Amino acid sequence: MSTDALPQSMVALVDCNNFYASCERVFDPALIGKPIGVLSNNDGCVIARSAELKALNIEMATPAFQVYPLQNRFGIILRSSNYALYGDLSSRVMQVLDSFSPSVERYSIDEAFLDLSGMQDSVSNICQQIACKVPIYTGIPVSVGAAPSKTLAKIASHLAKKQPGRQNVCVFEHADDPELLIWLKSLPIEEIWGIGRRLGQKLRQAGIETALQLRDTDHRWLKRNFNVLVARTALELKGTHCIHVDDAPEPRQNIMCSRSFSKTTNSLAELKEAIRFHCQIACEKLRKQNSLAQAVLVTIRTNGNRFGPQHKEARAYPLPQATDDTALILKYAQEQLELLHQPGLRYQKAGVMLLDLIPHRPMQLGLFQKEQASISEQGQKRRQLMQTMDQLNNKIGKQAVGFGLARKEANWQMKMAHRSPRYTTCWQEIPVVKAK
Q1: How far is CA 216 from CA 8, 185, 198, 241, 342, in A?
Q2: So what's the pLDDT on residue 375?
Q3: Which of 69, 84, 217, 298 is close enough to 336 for a disulfide, judged by CB 3.0 to 4.6 Å?
Q4: Domains with residue ranges and CATH for the chain
């Protein structure tokens, strides 16, 4: 069979426009058209901006005290983070998206990938309907980009949002679309989804400076000289859908960790095990990139393909202070899980998302030097504990040291009936050689 006869995949990325600011406007229409800034925990700095605030050149992470003097002059509205509202409206957006596709994969609090392959209606019409109906049903405006792969859908979504004439929708039905190729030729390598500045510098040293050049580079050579993700990104730019959402690059402001279970479960204890497992992985990623999380979001869902009552919901909770402490984040994540769980329902998936990441910086001492120094010393000890735990896990094996025990045969574990032994990372599965 020729490749032309193979069914082509089509992926849509739905991205909520200026999500936090849009959430504030849903129940306060007087804010429409005004510059809005959403502040971090304890109202420290700007973590989200409306388009109007961006136009005033107010940058992300601008300290709140620098914005206060500008409020009267420019009519700037500042709001404290309202994660309960943002999490609930995010769930409502996802529920609307469920009506358009049997496969909706949440990528962040304000983004989701939809599988539109094999739909009876045209992809362009479906995307237009999404862009129209989501704001009507939820009050949240969205941009929709569709293409044969997630990486190309990311590019299409960016164009849908940035180019006014597109009316928040951009569809490339083929990877060789002439307009798409023009954009790939002008797109700097660092701006490709999952590449970033450091990896982009290494690719530039190898003579690869644009998305089109990466697309045309042999993926096997990229795998040998860089890594699997770079090689897959090159294939994605050619239209081959090969990056799963759980293996996708993390959004800059969020870290998501979730998996579908091998079997559905109605046990709160098993769901807590799953949340504990995912939370520890997410926090390890958080520390690896030297960031702190300001909020945690917990998601659970039943199997939408089965008959019976369904439940798909998420809850976000602001952390008392920005942190990378697994124990603290886990405490609040499990509290949110208890509020979400509905006894009697069988759940198929649970996950954790760390929100509004900021760089880790030493705590600044203020007026109460002794008290703050004591808090800072305590935080440093906790950080050293987390770093030691990460080092042990890197040396001995994943999840060798952690919080609580996870049963090997728990229902929430992934189904791996055909997995080969982990020869190099698990002591129990090292090959045994017997000499006669």
Answers
A1: 20, 11, 21, 16, 50
A2: 45
A3: 298
A4: 7-171 (3.30.70.270), 176-238 (1.10.150.20), 254-396 (3.30.1490.100)
Q: Which of 255, 295, 226 is nearest to 108 (CA)?
A: 255
Token pair 């129940």 is found at 27
The C-alpha atoms of residue 148 and residue 11 are separated, in whole angstroms, by: 6
SS (H, E, C) the chain: CCHHHCCCCCEEEEEECCHHHHHHHHCCHHHCCCCEEEECHHHCEEEEECHHHHHCCCCCCCEHHHHHHHHHHHCCEEEECCHHHHHHHHHHHHHHHHCCCCCEEEEECCEEEEECCCCCCCHHHHHHHHHHHHHHHHCCCEEEEEECCHHHHHHHHHHHHHCHHHCCEEECCCCCCHHHHHHHHHCEHHHCCCCHHHHHHHHHHCCCCEHHHHHCCCHHHHHHHCCHHHHHHHHHHCCCCCCCHHHCCCCCCEEEEEEEEEEEECCHHHHHHHHHHHHHHHHHHHHHCCEEEEEEEEEEEECCCCCCCCCEEEEEEEEEEEECCHHHHHHHHHHHHHHHCCCCCCEEEEEEEEECCEECCCCCCCCCHHHHHHHHHHHHHHHHHHHHHHHHHHHHCCCCCCCCCCCCCCCCCCCCCCCCCCCCCCHHHCCCCCCC
What Å distances lie between residue 14 and 143, 183, 372, CA to CA?
6, 20, 43
Strand order from edge to edge, sheet including 11-16: 104-108, 111-115, 11-16, 142-147, 169-171
Given a contact cutoff of 8 angstroms between Cβ atoms, the answer to whether 44 and 73 are in contact is no
Residue 113: exposure state from Cβ atoms within 10 A (0-12, 13-18, ≥19): buried
CA 346, CA 302: separation in Å to the nearest integer?
A: 6
Q: What are the average pLDDT values for consecutive 10-residue runs of the chain, which has 436 residues? A: 56 96 92 92 85 94 92 94 87 93 90 92 96 96 96 95 89 95 95 89 95 94 91 94 71 79 88 91 88 92 83 89 91 94 91 89 48 55 78 70 63 52 62 76
3-state secondary structure 90-137: HHHHHHHHHCCCCCEEEEECCEEEEECCCCCCCHHHHHHHHHHHHHHH
CB 226 within 8 A of CB 233: no
Name the token pair of 58. 């107010």
pTM for this entry: 0.76
Which structure tokens are listed for 122? 């045209």
First to last CA, the chain: 50
